[in-house]
Amino acid sequence: MGVESKRIDIHMCAFEISPMLIGFRKPIVLLPNKTIDQEELALILRHELVHYKRKDLWMNTLLLFVTAIHWFNPAVYVMGKAIQNDCEESCDEALLQGADIEKRRRYGEAIIGLIRNKNVQRTALSTNFYGGKKTLKNRLKSIMDTSKKKAGVAALCGVATVTAIILSGSIFMNQDGDKAEASAEITAKRAQEIALAEAGGGKVVKYSLDYENGKKFYDIKVVKGNTEYDFDISATDAKVYSFEEKTIKNTAATGLKVTPEITIEKAKQIALSKAGGGRVTKATVDYENGKKIYDIQIVNGNAKYEMDVNATDSKISSYEKETVKTPQTQTSKNNTPQSNTSQKKCITEQFDKPI
């Protein structure tokens, strides 16, 4: 890669991270503490070395400096996110220049495997593999695109935007304008109506709010017959920016016996039985591969459970358990532990409550 004169260390990090480059004077590549295939490792290290050669850490520092000064300006946050995303895609393109479709596929799979956990830790003064769900979709599309791209255009636009903001002082200072823009956002109900109109009817089975490049989107899933639709609708201009359609199994059409779906309360009971009791902290409806599931979270003592219960056959298709830290023993104002009588009372009250 042409950087043999510079010592760059590689460290495994105990936190849940994606691969990143940190350090200005002593650059270090941080990798998640997991087994990485040798071929994938070579691609990852090349990606981070491209960041190093292009001095992207200094660009991130400039972005952080501009954001600190113009913290009140929403355009700065949009600009910063766009520049970072374009920077990652540009590094991918430089790395995969002349690569065949198979190598691009392996590289995409390597990225997905390393950021499978969405709760990865991030830090400002570093490069970072992960930038959100929609950013990852766009990045994978770019990786699989073998057509020639106009390199440098995104970087030039980013630098021009940074310079313009620094020189101009501020943009969007008019508070009335900000209020008008905020009030122009559509509601979740309106977004669902748009999705149903696009699908030609059906039922909304899931919707959530998401952000991409500083823009607010509604992620809405609609089921109509044996077809599932997934829409990304902008909250500001009510446009459909992303649309996916897939066919789900229709047991009635095949003549198979239709099993009645269980209720979410029944799913909670199944999950509580599996966890041996406890308290349900989350219960939501989701769809995976066209199948309806209940996502249940339970806390039982110092253990936290997360399960996916199938709505059709009542089976637990996914099961995770982790140990959480228990709070320290409560002390009185004079720093003396609670008496045995108080502890017994607490225990009695706890078991008197229904599970």
Topology, number of strands: 11
Q: Strand order, biggest sheet?
A: 4-5-6-7
What is the rounded Rg?
Answer: 25 Å
The domain tally reads 3
Average pLDDT confidence is 75
> Helices and strands: which structural class?
alpha+beta
**CA(first)-CA(last) distance:** 60 Å
Number of helices: 10
What shape does the CA trace take? Answer: globular
Share in helix = 25-40%
> Main beta sheet: strand number and arrangement?
4 strands, antiparallel
β content, as a range?
15-25%
Catalogue the unreliable spans: 170-183, 251-258, 329-339, 341-353
Order of helices and strands: EEEHHHHHHHHEEEEHEEEEH
Question: How would you describe what is shown here?
Answer:
- The chain is an alpha+beta fold.
- Helices cover 39% and strands 24% of the residues.
- Strand 9 and strand 10 (303-310) form a beta hairpin.
- Helix 1 (38-53) crosses helix 3 (74-95) and helix 1 packs across helix 4.
- It starts with 8 loop residues before the first strand and ends with a helix.
